């Protein structure tokens, strides 16, 4: 795979029924490994499936994985770093965008690493409506547990310094342009 580091990419999220959920117009790749890619965005335009759009308020560093059913966003606030985690398919990337399927279940992690699981009702509604296969439901629940364990153990990338390092790398690269 040719390196994407330093390049801007679009991010597209879908729902299980293949309908478009949301597009982030631009994110800058700051790292890639065999099993993940890291992107940074700041004031990025986000387009919802209904055509409405908004801009991200805080800068963020996001990890997308090829072997886990979640992605992890480190959100840089004034004096804190929060994480927002989406239960989602492993990503794929093509000439158009980085793409994944969003499965509704989310975890919000605040600065002290306490966390809350969000959107269980939306997940339950969609798993019935879109008829998630039994194997998929079991993968999603297992990955939710893996994610909680990573948060509790402060496993990579749940480290405020790692988020700051990637964001600072992004800022340095922007200054060089």
From TrEMBL:
<keyword id="KW-0460">Magnesium</keyword>
<dbReference type="InterPro" id="IPR050212">
    <property type="entry name" value="Ntdp-like"/>
</dbReference>
<dbReference type="Pfam" id="PF04167">
    <property type="entry name" value="DUF402"/>
</dbReference>
<keyword id="KW-0479">Metal-binding</keyword>
<dbReference type="InterPro" id="IPR007295">
    <property type="entry name" value="DUF402"/>
</dbReference>
<protein>
    <submittedName>
        <fullName>DUF402 domain-containing protein</fullName>
    </submittedName>
</protein>
<dbReference type="GO" id="GO:0046872">
    <property type="term" value="F:metal ion binding"/>
</dbReference>
<feature type="domain" description="DUF402">
    <location>
        <begin position="17"/>
        <end position="155"/>
    </location>
</feature>
<dbReference type="GO" id="GO:0016787">
    <property type="term" value="F:hydrolase activity"/>
</dbReference>
<dbReference type="InterPro" id="IPR016882">
    <property type="entry name" value="SA1684"/>
</dbReference>
<dbReference type="InterPro" id="IPR035930">
    <property type="entry name" value="FomD-like_sf"/>
</dbReference>
<keyword id="KW-0378">Hydrolase</keyword>
